[in-house]
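Incident review: delayed structure delivery

Summary: a single-chain prediction request sat in the queue longer than the usual turnaround. Root cause was a stuck worker, restarted by the on-call engineer. No data loss occurred. The affected request and its eventual output are reproduced below so the record is complete for anyone auditing the incident later.

Affected input:
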Amino acid sequence: MRRIARAVMLLSLVLLAVHSIMSTSLQAEGDGKTVYVVPVQKEVEKGLASFLNRSIKEAEEQNADHIIFEVNTPGGAVDAASSIAKTFQDIDIPNTAFVLKEALSAGSYISLNADSIYMTPSATMGAAGVITSDGNAASKKAQSNWVKAMRSAAETGGRDPKFAEAMANPDLDLPEYQAGEGKYLTLSAGEAEEIGYAEGVVADREALLKELGLEDATIKETNPTLTEQIARLITNPVVVPILLSLASLGFVAELYTPGFGIAGTMGLVALILFFYGHFIAGLAGYETIIFFALGIICIILELFVPGGILGIIGVGAVIGSLFMATDDAGYMAMSIGIALMVAIIASILLFKFMGFERGFMKNIILNDATSTDKGYVSSKNRLELIGLEGTTLTPLRPSGTGEFDGERIDIVTEGGFIASGKAVKVIQAEGTRVIVREIIKEQE
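Output delivered after worker restart:
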């Protein structure tokens, strides 16, 4: 019995040791590794690209073993998506796009450039048609380039490019995926897994980490800093024309208000926010800000130096700096056009209700008039002569000279002739023009 007991104990110890070794081996797959979790959320724009660049660089510097991009975006700017996709292609660290809710339009393109794609059961991906900022379809050239980019991203990941093209080209007919002709393809999580566009469907991040064998890894989350959040807001295609319009409205209103007040401050803050956001997003450099400052200085100098050359140079420099702060000249031109329209309308309304009598405009507009109310007269009026009687010293044909209370005065008749030595009476005085009428005495 003792031998049997010893054998059972020895066997138990061996099994325990084997289990311990196997558990240690399994845990070693994820233990000691580092996973960076980076959110790809809200609209795709240059501010997001800047944040992702920083997060990826940080992960590489910390020798991370994996990067998970948690995607939930309705899409956004194509140029920003292209920049992000290029960044993804250059990542040396294994990475995964984890679609939480939706990866639409530019979001689907970004996800296709990741090493692998996982989705939650309710997530969708696709609908990648290209539209302009005003909601209309983009040009055929732009659409063609976008379709090629979508196909290339799918092919690089070993996926069937037909489905990527259907996401961007409504002319493809895929009725089995509710994407008949005229509709963009949008895949559910199950459909994406079925056609190989998703490596799997998982409930949450924990399940994804387990699927990747990284459940025991150290998780480091990155989030946009306050400055990056401001940059994302300011570089949003909707916000740019609003900021420029506020700036133009503020400066126009400042011309009609005394001193430098709320309106001017509003305009200045709007411009500072514009350049600050674009600087943080990497769209504007120090040379852009210097160029803008030189433009403002030239405009100010124009107020004191006549000629107009400095003003033209200043306005050109300011507009040029706005174009330097963007990589989409067409959209910036539209934003500047909107701002100019706002400025023109504001100028008309302010002039109508306030005129040029207030604010800075009164310093450059001549408002003073040499009116008699202020003591200005073009010549001396002789109103005191009206009713005075005198004698003509010369014939009046119709002008001549007369004497009134011992004073020789140039006089004129109402149009008729009056001989010399005749009695006359002043009936009207208009400046230096004294009009007289002959006094005819009745005969007795």
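Verification: Residues 200 and 258 are 66 Å apart (CA to CA).
Action items: add queue-age alerting; document worker restart procedure.
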